[in-house]
């Protein structure tokens, strides 16, 4: 009989089937009672949205994973682009530490991954060292081609069958390369079905040897990515509008009739009357009905392409169950990045810092994981490698930029109070939409962004290489339609950050200065600190995160306040820190826009560290030192 679990994280107790029990008594193992290391199946879709309801069209995902596992509502990619996101996922490192920031050379793709040394330092190698057989089917990285797949071969896999460019995204003309064999074309066959067959073969092999060695299997179909015809085997530094031909994703013949009436959800920010955002986004035209009709067709095509992925989930779970291995197997479902269609007037695509692009699905099922739970703790793709290492029972690396994701009920309850609240988001280079309309190449799509989520606040703060800024309060503005830093807003008549740190900052600021409590928050009211105090805190946090490494990335408040008395934005907003944040810190800025990560073009770096009040004990008379 199915067991439903309802975890009430707002209190001290967790409810299970209507009965209360103390979290301290709820220690659940992460592995089955056999004591064997668990198997891990990792299903990675491509460009799948969370905010356009794609999961609602996947009944097997719900039946097998959502209902029997935990959904992480606030899971984020840290770079909303395929290859950089996947490299971060498999290395546990932020893109500024992998220096893989694009899908093609010279700034990204498989050649960049290999040249940076990660072919000998990423997850499958570490799992093999932990005693696992490792298998991969589908898309590994962009720019892994029919010409360079052996230069070098992707290391760390007991068995592999990779999709290769220039045919990776051609649903009916895919080329695969198995182990160290030569590439094989599957022209005329539906690529997701080919991936399924290959995945089941590796799964059977893993199950046969599971008593001696556990297995890690990655299944990475290209659905629901657009269908892409790449005109060159390798695009190396010369990408133009003519480099590729993009069209809606293709479904299997058996799914072509589905969802005939489905449309992109008509949310408040869908094709708005007034433009949103900054930079090139703020200049997008309103879409006409012909454009919208095509984009609805594009949306339906995505949903249809996902049906083959949903069928894979059903088949994988059925095979694990038949083999008696399901209870000792963790199953992860996620995607590399999110997607937008029509929101903020955007044509189909990704790469933005808006919630559609960075907030992505993550569902986990396995031994000890609560069933039917939706958690709101903040997690990111850099947390997945540490999580998988922990499940494998091996020590975590001290250079991870992420932390292991809490999976058991007591861990999840504790994480409500202790888990980090931030995600560092970054992007470089160019962007081009994937639809029929507006497939224009936009340069200077380089930015640093901070996503900060607390129990009573939720912000997106973005600094573009052009010098433009965005700040959205998602508590009051969940669709990110009102930039609090727009020059014509009534509550901000002078933009704060560029001059708070300048000589002119000694003059009174033309910003809201309502007298608040010592935490700059009115008693018994909604959290709403004045921008004059909020912005410097957010900017300082982003300054630290944009070049962070290891613990700087996972515990930034601890780095800024080593005494441990600041753990979140609420703590940082105490008035005693006003001078520390508002006048002593450098500000995030770029010296120029680049197509990739060039450190010298990304402005100043380093933050000032708080070292406590001075000997006299005067409020605001703190001591600090500079941290590079």
Automatic annotation (TrEMBL):
Q: Which residues form a coiled coil?
A: none
Any one of the GO BP annotations:
phenol-containing compound metabolic process
Task: Write down the PROSITE patterns for this protein, in alphabetical order.
Answer: SULFATASE_1
Q: Locate the Sulfatase N-terminal domain: which residues?
A: 38-393
Q: Which UniProt keywords apply?
A: Glycoprotein, Hydrolase, Signal
Which InterPro entries does its entry note? Alkaline_phosphatase_core_sf, Arylsulfatase, Sulfatase_CS, Sulfatase_N
The record's annotation in Pfam families points to: Sulfatase
3-oxoalanine (Cys) is carried by which residues?
82
Renumbered to this chain, the signal peptide range is 1-22
Alphabetized GO MF terms: arylsulfatase activity; glycosaminoglycan binding; N-acetylglucosamine-6-sulfatase activity
Q: How is it modified after translation?
A: The conversion to 3-oxoalanine (also known as C-formylglycine, FGly), of a serine or cysteine residue in prokaryotes and of a cysteine residue in eukaryotes, is critical for catalytic activity.
Give the Enzyme Commission number.
Answer: 3.1.6.1
Catalyses: an aryl sulfate + H2O = a phenol + sulfate + H(+)
By sequence similarity, the record places it as follows: Belongs to the sulfatase family.
- The name of this protein is Arylsulfatase
State the organism named in the record. Answer: Friedmanniomyces endolithicus
